[in-house]
């Protein structure tokens, strides 16, 4: 009986993300409590050009064509994510990880996208359809 309680506790936080389609939405793209979409990013600065290198459950690997100096890579990441997702730069913000390769980017709740749609657009960019 007690293992069932542990399972129910484990599923409560995960219930937020599966509202879009659980099979197509990796854990790297989540719906937050306030309606925003959080994307976990593993950034690779100093790349030849900005691109999506891969998409896993842990994070979206993004190659950034800017050096990690004076916030240049962070600005390029926000610009690039807005561009590939078809959003305005004002709808995309760096939430965590300004000085780390592990970052979290937030999309406004009123951006008109679901986590599943974000995953589809990211997969199109990395060729994993």
CATH class: Alpha Beta
Work out the helicity level: 25-40%
Given as residue ranges, the uncertain stretches (5+ residues, pLDDT < 50) are 7-23
Look at the structure and name the CATH superfamily.
YggU-like
Number of helices: 3
Structural class based on helices, strands and sheet pairing: alpha+beta
Give the domain tally: 1
Q: What sequence of helices (H) and strands (E) makes up the elements?
A: HEEEEHEEH
What is the CATH topology assignment?
Conserved Hypothetical Protein Mth637, Chain: A
The fraction of residues in strands falls at 15-25%
Please describe what this structure looks like.
There is one protein chain. The chain has 129 residues and is of the alpha+beta class. It has a single domain, classed as YggU-like (Conserved Hypothetical Protein Mth637, Chain: A, 2-Layer Sandwich), CATH 3.30.1200.10. The chain contains 3 helices and 6 strands; from the N terminus they run αββββαββα. It has helices spanning 2-14, 72-85, 115-126; strands at 29-31, 37-44, 51-55, 60-63, 92-96, 102-107. Strands 1, 2, 3, 4, 5 and 6 form a 6-stranded mixed beta sheet that branches. The longest helix is centred in the middle third of the chain and has 14 residues, at 72-85.
